[in-house]
Amino acid sequence: MKLLELYILRRSFQMFLVTLVPVLTIIWTIQVLGRINLVTDTGQSMGSFATLATFILPTIIPVVLPFAVVIGITQTLNAMNNDSEMAVIDAAGSPRMVLYRPVMMMAVGLAALSFLITNFVEPASRTSAREMVAEAYADLLSSVIEEKTFRSIEDGLYVQISERHSGRVLKGLFLVDYRDPNWDLIYYAREGSIDDSGTTLTMRDGEVHRKAKDGRISVVKFLSYAFDLSSMTESTGNATVYAGDRSLRFLINPDPTDKAFLASPGSFRAEFHRRMSDWMLPVVFALVSLVVAGSARSSRRARLHPMVSALIIAFAIRWLSFYVSNGAKNDASFVPLVYLVPIASALIAIFMLATNRQLKMPAFVSHAAGHWMNRAERRLTRVMAGTKGSDSR
After folding, report:
1. Of the residues 33, 108, 130, 133, which has the maximum number of CB atoms within 10 A of its CB?
2. Domain spans of the chain?
3. pTM of the prediction?
4. Which residue has the higher pLDDT, 326 or 297?
């Protein structure tokens, strides 16, 4: 690789990292803080919370990475143009491949990284995160809830215990259940215990107060009463597995008896084709950046900033790709479009680069932009002149 190509590659990769790290940190922080209830509700340690945060990170990288590519490359090329480096490269007679080769090498490498994360790292991280949350909530009633403290187990279900003993034995139970739309139930029991499966709470020596919606109240005393916890353990104790959590091997050859697959086979089809196409976006966005900012241009021309143009096109391609991927869930005819969107975008960009065509604004937009820039420049000149005059006085 030539010295000039190494220089372009280094600058582009540095700008890519400068873009990726802050954006990734902000989005990661937002996602992590949205799961802070794992610590506050279930009494997990900060170490467990940090582990969960680590599992979340691979799910964000494939989304942010393509946009970091387009920003990093466009900003690098635009800076080189402003410093007249692009004009010098053209004047020296260097072929355009000197500029294209390092950019595309970086894009292909990042596309391969995106493919590995999306198909191998992300599914395992998603599954581990769901299992971790499920285990934390499954142990909530039997070992985490503080004594003599009201806690919400799920919407409409609250519990307080006086003492906790070994063998999952609970003393002084007070349980409120508002989940039934027809009855409000309040349970008192001297003691209770949870079975090993965590699906049944057996209360002994207590009473239950039932209040109907019409105001009727009944009190029933019992020696032993089994309270069903299966709905709670199903919603919190067992991790639900979605198409995005499955491995690439499963998506290629799904188990026809799998409950999640039987419930929504279209989501598995769409997930597989999404993974097979999304990894191409860094390459597509790199080509878009080269079309927008890959040639020497005068800074006096009235045009949108290259960064704005590149991002608008990138967002449009990403939205269209997302749209057809969602459409593939319900209609198999959308599957070819999942691949057509990135491939067609890349081919159009390659054609424009091969024929040395530049992305231009329509004439009416260019004239309007030029008129607006001239007005802004005159207004700024008057403001600056007024400021100097006031300073001289």
Report:
1. 133
2. 3-137+250-371, 145-237
3. 0.73
4. 326
